[in-house]
Amino acid sequence: MPENSAEQNARLVKNAEEYYRSMFSDRVSSWNLRDRQMAETLDSLVKHLNSHIHR
């Protein structure tokens, strides 16, 4: 699972920067971005967990 943690941490840093930049320029789009990033995170987690279940 360390490889998934590294990927998730990298994604978090990238997404955080993108979110904070949008938050200060356009609040509506920042909420849309936040929702999209949360959905991507959940999709990634499900994919990771499924790969470990089906070994």
TrEMBL record:
Signal peptide (residue range): none
Pfam families documented for this protein: Erythro_esteras
Recorded superkingdom: Bacteria
Annotated protein name in UniProt: Erythromycin esterase family protein
Species whose genome carries this gene: Floridaenema aerugineum BLCC-F46
Upper taxonomic lineage: Bacteria, Bacillati, Cyanobacteriota, Cyanophyceae, Oscillatoriophycideae
